[in-house]
Automatic annotation (TrEMBL):
InterPro entries in UniProt: DUF1415
Entry protein name: DUF1415 domain-containing protein
Organism: Chitinophaga niabensis
Length: 177
């Protein structure tokens, strides 16, 4: 588990922060306020329960800014992973967490709708393991107050990935393993 967390931290440092895909991640990485939870179960039900447990952890620990729930042995098929994403988004509503937490999704085979599998833009969300990122909505709102034109972030990320190219983006991500 230590290696999985180290690889995930390396991916955040080199890809997410290094490519400035999330302009807010550097602060949390530097302040060490990201919690990493490695979940070794493989079923969707167990994954949902692990996700919910991390929401409860965030409820009880304000020192954690955000959580990466990592599934190194589960959801290798991207469509199965998308079913998990859908399930946890529904669970956020059912458990009264809508407006409190939101989920961002990352997967080694991430593919945006309408793109080809090898489109460099997919590497903006291609991680070293399938993972769910739990974010505090209040922190997002505060960060966005001081950030000019946050709506441009996805477009800027896609442009950056296209400029660097698929080979570079894949090499950068793979260097974290």
């Amino acid at each position: 588990m230590v290696e999985i967390i180290a690889q995930t931290k390396d991916w955040i440092k080199k890809v997410v922060v290094g490519c400035n895909f999330c302009p807010f991640a550097a602060k949390e990485l530097k302040q060490d306020t990201i919690h990493y939870e490695v979940v070794t179960t493989t079923g969707i039900r167990a994954a949902r329960l692990a996700f919910l447990a991390e929401c409860v952890r965030l409820d009880n620990d304000e020192s954690i800014a955000t959580t990466m729930v990592i599934f190194p042995e589960a959801f290798p098929v991207f469509l199965d992973y998308l079913n998990l994403v859908d399930a946890v988004e529904k669970m956020l509503q059912q458990e009264g967490y809508e407006g409190i937490y939101q989920v961002a999704s990352f997967h080694p085979l991430y593919q945006f709708a309408g793109t080809e599998p090898e489109d460099a833009a997919n590497y903006t969300n291609r991680s070293v393991y399938p993972m769910l990122h739990i974010l505090r909505e209040a922190q997002i709102e505060m960060a966005l107050l001081n950030f000019p034109d946050p709506e441009s972030i996805p477009e800027r990320n896609v442009k950056f990935a296209h400029e660097k190219g698929r080979v570079y983006m894949k090499m950068l991500r793979d260097s974290c393993l």
